[in-house]
């Protein structure tokens, strides 16, 4: 990463995720009073004093726990520490120093990184004398804050930006491609991201629902910069029992909204399901480009044309996403994963494509000549003029004489003509029809 990286570490339930949300300026990480809610590294971009940097929220550290998931949380936090320029060591000002705080401070001192000791839950402007006991951790100066109330955050960030290395880029980057990996639980989303990145980026277990937050990873592929967003698998509503899982669903839907492209991961063993269709429908409604990745292809029993049957089933179940490319992969073995990003780059090109007004009108006029507009009670629909008014997804405005004469099948015909002539693989198109004044 060429941006400064700030990671937030500490034992469970000291307010790390609340501080993370406060720094990035919106509620990204799930915050609950139950320890262990944050399991993975969660990345988000933040800005202070016109300096842009990456913030990493980590799961609560319990250095000597042998629990399977807690040990993976510890590994995720260790990776965050390794890649950080500045570490915010968060302690609970109400609880005082604990044995776990001492263990973590020993780990951080060995890291040789810049560490700022953040004493959280100080909810009054006057600093209580009790916080001075944290000097025994040997970290340095203490910065008191209340992440919940926003007290002291500005002073903290003033200190953070002082430690940014001179060789790091703190300028805003508007060219990052945001890719959300979506799908039902246990389809292999986290495994796919780990394969792409070549590291244990997100916790992978055989327990459905391991990923609870929408987790961002910044990386480069060729000449392009990406943010990969791993999301909690969307369960059926009746399967959502824990309150924290309800938050996870909200995070997943939010991740889709802020993505440019969605990779819909389908479990190759299960085939396309009703749940997959609902998830795909949400991405489509939000106007997102989409690539369909059929995972676990290495263990699917195959005959001569199995992949053609899969493609047919997918298109029958997702007729509204006929434009989306389909790729058969194995996140476990890495089969065709390298081809996935070539497809993503192509789809992003379609998602941001602009068509010149002159060429667009040539295509629309030719389509009208080839297939005359419908009539109603002796009046014929007239198509006057077309122009592109936006991207992400491509949006078109077509002026006509009377919207009542525009049948949905003819609207679909014009949309298909635009798509067929200009490509637009993987992206939905939005076509709006507007009456031109004085032409009814």
Automatic annotation (TrEMBL):
GO terms for biological process: ribosome biogenesis. Transmembrane segments: none annotated. InterPro entries: G_ENGA, GTP-bd, GTPase_Der, KH_dom-like, KH_dom-like_a/b, P-loop_NTPase, Small_GTP-bd. Associates with the 50S ribosomal subunit. This is GTPase Der. Residues 4-168, 177-352 form the EngA-type G domain. The keyword Nucleotide-binding applies. GTP 1 binds at residues 10-17, 57-61, 120-123. One of its GO terms (molecular function) is GTP binding. CDD domains: EngA1, EngA2. Belongs to the TRAFAC class TrmE-Era-EngA-EngB-Septin-like GTPase superfamily. EngA (Der) GTPase family. HAMAP family: GTPase_Der. GTP 2 binds at residues 183-190, 230-234, 295-298. Keywords: GTP-binding, Nucleotide-binding, Repeat, Ribosome biogenesis. The keyword NAD does not apply. GTPase that plays an essential role in the late steps of ribosome biogenesis. It comes from Acidilutibacter cellobiosedens.
